[in-house]
Amino acid sequence: MLNIAFIAHDRKKSEIVNFVIAYEKVFEGHQLFSTGTTGTRIMEQTDLTIHRFESGPLGGDQQIGALVARNEMDLIIFLRDPLMAQPHEPDIIALLRLCDVQGIPVATNIATAEILVKALERGEFAWRELPNKYKPGVDEA
């Protein structure tokens, strides 16, 4: 079971809902997280249970980032709106930076999300289930 997060900017929320509907069976066996409104909209349209954090501008990105910092997130689908300025842009950049530091796969558009979910469907995320000492960014203690 992997930890997967969904985040979508306002103009991308319908797109992420449709994407999750299309791959609902793939996501069923995993622990799911999201920012507030995105999670609500997904749960309204699917039978999935999602742990919802605050909305992005109210700290939801940072709450997911805390899981990333502890290497407790395995995959993030974050459909960003590149044509709209976001008031919490520093939080977004910090989350993406943490994903890079920890080696967490993150999709920021539907094309990359499709590739990652197809890999998830084929079981190609087994490397994320390794003990922490073998994961990128985790020090052996």
UniProtKB/TrEMBL annotation:
One annotated GO biological process: methylglyoxal biosynthetic process
Pfam families named among the record's database cross-references: MGS
UniProt binding sites for substrate: 9, 13, 35-38, 55-56, 88
Active site residues of this protein: 61
Cellular component GO terms held in the UniProt record: cytosol
MF GO annotations: methylglyoxal synthase activity
Domain of life: Bacteria
Reaction(s) catalysed by this chain's protein: dihydroxyacetone phosphate = methylglyoxal + phosphate
Keyword annotations from UniProtKB, A to Z: Lyase
E.C. designation(s): 4.2.3.3
SMART domains: MGS
UniProt-listed PANTHER family: METHYLGLYOXAL SYNTHASE
Similarity comment: family membership: Belongs to the methylglyoxal synthase family.
Protein task: Catalyzes the formation of methylglyoxal from dihydroxyacetone phosphate.
Protein name: Methylglyoxal synthase
